[in-house]
Structure formats: C-alpha cells, structure tokens
Amino acid sequence: MDFKALYSFLRDLEQHNSKDWMDQHRKKYKALRTDFISWLDELNTQIETWDTAYYNTPGKRGINRINNNLMFHPNKPIYKDHFGGGLDKAPGTADFYIEIGPNGSLLAGGFWRPDPKTLRSIRDGIDYDGEKLQEILTKDSFKGNFGELYKDVKLKNAPKGFSNDHPHIELLKHKTFAVVHHLKDEEVFQQSFKEKIITVYKEMLPFRRYLNQCATV
Prior knowledge:
This protein is of the alpha+beta class. It has helices spanning 3-15, 19-24, 26-48, 59-62, 116-138, 140-146, 169-172, 185-189, 193-215, and strands at residues 83-87, 95-100, 105-111, 177-183. Helix 5 crosses helix 9.
C-alpha cells in the first residue's frame, strides 16, 4: 500500500470536497480503496495466525465508507479526510480500528458510546471485578501506548444503581470505553508499519477482551 499516494489524494480531496471532484477522480479513489482493502486482508491474515480467538474480518467487510453521514452531521463535508477500517469485528464486540490520513492517523479499540444494554453490562462487569480492568489500564506498557481511557462524555455523579463511594466510581461514570494510540506519519510510511500495528493490537487485546467478556455475559 502506497500511503504517501493515499495522503496526497486525501489532501486534494480535502481542498475540493465535492461530488463533482470525486466523480472526476473516481478511478484514483477506487484504485487506492482496492489497495487499502488488500492491505487490510494481509493484516487480517497475519493477526489471525496467532490470535486463536480472532474474528476473521476480510478487508471488504472491515473498510469504512468514505462518505460522512450527513443525516446526523449535516455540517460535515461530504467526504472524510481519512481511510478507516476495523478488524476482529465480531458482532456486538469491541473491534480494533485503524484510521489513516494526513490530518492524523491512529489505532483505537473498545466501545464508543455503546447502547444502554451494553453499557450496563460493562458497568456490571466493573462492579464485579473492576480491579482487573484497573490492572490493565495502569500497566506501564499500556499507559505508554494509550495513556488513559478516551476522554468523552462522562457522568458527574454515579450511574443509577451504583453509589458515589464505589471503589471504581470514576470508571463507572464513563459512557465510552475506548483507548487510542496516535501514529506519526513516518511510522505509517515505514515498511515495518504492519509490525507496529500488531504490537499495538497485542497491547490492547486484554482491554478489549475484558470489555467483550462484560458485554456478552
């Protein structure tokens, strides 16, 4: 995958974000999209060889649409400024997300504002053995890769059914349970980029597996 060519295309798209421009450059877009799908396929195969619980996610299934959802975000441009895709995408579980673009590339995983039932299941899991999640989050290598939980909407008080003096009250207040690893452009352009992704994937895996165990109980 020629990520420098992808960056160049996305920069041009950002400056001419219209259907007319995209129609004129559809051949280039489709070629880059095909390459990205193939790249995701290769990564999917590599991860599947050692992760026995991995959910096979071919590139065509994992890739995200480049169109923004204007129904819910009418003020956004027509097209996104990045290519994105998810791996290990079993239904109802925390997937592993890859976003590549000139305005910032990242690797992320977890649950972004899950539905009420899933959120309640995660909170019940934390109530049961939140020490295990705390141990994952405070591990030095984990903090070095992700810092803290992604900062999103958070309750001011304890959620319904939990007390304000709960030992894991700060975790219980979260509405999003996800972590992010930001990438430098030079990392994206290196030949060893896939190895970098797999290293981050492995570091994130206990966190995602913990959430999945909570969500599927």
